[in-house]
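User: Second chain of the day. Same drill as before.
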Amino acid sequence: MKRFTPLLFVVTCVLVLAAATPSTRAAELNEAELLKRIAQGGVVLMMRHAQTVSGIGDPPGFDLARCATQRNLDARGRDQARALGKRFARAGVRPTRVLSSAWCRCKDTAQLAFGTYTVLPDLNSFFEDRRTEPEQTAALRERLGRLSSKDIEVWVTHQVNIQALAGISPAMGETVVLAAGHPVRVLGRLAQTFP
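Assistant: Same format as last time:
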């Protein structure tokens, strides 16, 4: 019986592991193809809030009930949110539901882009306290799995939430498009839109 060489053994292990690990990324579509695919339904548009005033996180002692204590959209971010909504409307994308984090920058993005939103606590940032990340991410994964093939949900949230679920760190105003179902599957990304 022939012995495996160390290199052949390593290559074999890598191939076996690659075949056993579900991919979270489909072949990413270009923008026109992606917008057409979104309009068909069965997707989540996981959107990072639009451009904010400079800073990281929120000021010490911020209060979710008081927008003035948070890091909020700047004028360019408000314009960007409106442009996002127009971009989707031009492409015939009509969301079934628009869900948002309770942070004002997310609610404002949703309101300016789509004219409506419902707060979903599972989209709240865990940047300051990572203890809730596993539970929130599992709840979003479950919601994605229950989505119908006709639904188009918009989830306006934060970089850390998108990173935890999709493995992508988006820019402000960027949208990561996820296919409904399990496992999490990224169909593509829509870059920031500025007027």
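Strands lie at 43-48, 97-100, 118-119, 152-157, 175-179, 185-190.

User: Great, on to the next one.
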